[in-house]
Design goal:
1-PFruKinase, 11-stranded mixed beta sheet, transferase, EC 2.7.1.56, globular, single chain, 331 residues, 35% helix, kinase, UDP-N-acetylmuramoyl-L-alanine:D-glutamate ligase, 10 helices, alpha/beta, 15 strands
Length: 331
């Protein structure tokens, strides 16, 4: 694992680069049984440097991969992020911009096993900051690391930003994973060049495609459509039902065991991290599904974007049921 380095200095050759344009300081409040409109008591709280790409990087660093983090970070309150990057030996290539990084509030109800998110808007991106970021991304492309483009877009960033960046990265021979929603996902899925890995949840996929996907066959058909247009793997998470993973050669459903949920924050980010680590190790689709589901289980059984020990991950992976999705023709 590489040693910490100063912001913006050249990368020693990461395995993975994660991009977070709209990071957040996640304030997670454990308030079991809280009720709307009433005075509630909390049992605990913690604040973590977050944002989808930062979370993915944190999980990957725990797994032992060399990770570079980049994106746009408020210069007024970077301390929690810098401490995380240093503690987990992540290379910091974030562009500092004037102002404060936003706060995201997570109300974790352990009794109901659900989390309510309140996301504040991020700092507006300027043309100069985006130009500096583009130069850093270009400098990270040699060596062809995997790139993870994750999270929402802040004000000032066009909806097709990820779509254009994915095309640039794939043209350079880099593997690209995308985890976003809303107009950014719609733009990426309707672009000429798709990311290699797309991981929406079922609701995000329905919104991006503009149609409901009520039956398994419809979800499979939607995934196969994306594969025909250039994606390599489509992973659709469906909550307690698990996740459906589809590649050109196979289609499997990963069904997780029941566990005690401490917080759902970071579950999807952990799944992305598991899939990216599986790609780096050349795992087949079934083993990738086990890995990704184990990462996600590790995330929801604790607070914060941190993996449990590998023995726990191995135990989770062994409990994941892999079901073959029948009657699926190769894409």
């Amino acid at each position: 694992m590489s040693a910490p380095s100063s912001p913006g200095s050249p990368s020693p050759g990461p395995s993975v680069v994660t991009l977070t344009l709209n990071p957040a300081l996640d304030l997670t409040v454990q308030a079991d049984g809280w009720r709307r409109g009433q005075v509630n008591s909390a049992q605990a709280y913690q604040q973590d440097a977050g944002g989808k790409g930062v979370n993915v990087a944190s999980f990957l660093a725990d797994w032992g991969l060399s990770v570079t983090v980049t994106g746009l970070l408020g210069a007024g309150n970077p301390e929690a992020f810098e401490a995380l990057f240093q503690a987990k030996h992540m290379h910091d290539a974030f562009v500092r911009v004037p102002g404060l990084t936003r706060v995201g509030i997570k109300l974790a109800d352990g009794a109901a096993q659900e989390t309510t998110d309140i996301n504040l808007p991020g700092l507006a991106a300027t043309r100069g900051a985006l130009a500096t970021l583009d130069a850093r991304l270009t400098a990270l492309m040699p060596g062809r690391p995997a790139f993870v483009l994750a999270g929402s877009l802040p004000p000032g960033v066009a909806a097709d930003f990820y779509a254009r960046l994915a095309a640039k990265l794939r043209a350079a021979g880099c593997f690209v994973a995308l985890d976003t929603s809303g107009p950014a996902l719609t733009a990426a899925l309707t672009a000429h060049t798709l990311p290699d890995l797309v991981k929406p949840n079922i609701h995000e996929l329905e919104a991006a495609l503009g149609r409901s996907l009520d039956r398994e066959a419809e979800v499979l058909a939607a995934a196969r459509e994306l594969l025909r247009r250039g994606a390599s793997v489509v992973a659709v998470s469906q909550g307690e039902r698990g996740a459906l993973l589809v590649s050109g050669q196979d289609a499997v459903r990963a069904v997780p065991p029941r566990v005690t949920v401490h917080s759902t924050v970071g579950a999807g980010d952990a799944m992305v991290a598991g899939l990216v680590s599986a790609h780096r190790e050349g795992l087949n689709l079934a083993d990738a599904a086990r890995r990704a589901t184990a990462f996600s289980l590790g995330a929801i059984t604790r607070l914060g974007a941190h993996l449990p020990p590998r023995a726990d991950l191995d135990r989770f992976a062994a409990q994941v049921q892999i079901q073959s999705a029948e009657q699926v023709e190769p894409a």
